[in-house]
Design goal:
This protein is mainly α and 86 residues long. Helices cover 44% and strands 5% of the residues.
Length: 86
């Protein structure tokens, strides 16, 4: 699922974070699931560490960093958008 052992942006390495988050069991119904839980968690944590606090801001962060996130995580369907939440 993850393309790289070491996910870097600048000097930040995230392999342990990705490893730990990957252990979280996704209990969502697979019907209609568009985004991997690991991807959403990594995007959300990175955005929050950069000062983004609400879902729309997190989506804006993810859109602005979509290329890096895709290289790092191998996104299924790009980044989630704010109107995709439930």
């Amino acid at each position: 699922m993850i393309k790289s052992t070491y996910a870097k942006k600048g000097d930040v390495e995230m392999p342990r974070l990705i490893e730990l988050l990957g252990e979280i069991i996704d209990v969502r119904d697979s019907k209609g699931k568009k985004h991997c839980l690991l991807h959403v968690l990594v995007m959300s944590i990175c955005a929050m560490l950069h000062g983004y606090n609400d879902f729309e801001d997190i989506c804006d962060y993810a859109k602005a960093n979509e290329e890096w996130l895709n290289e790092t995580l191998g996104l299924w369907n790009g980044v989630p958008c704010a109107n995709g939440r439930r």
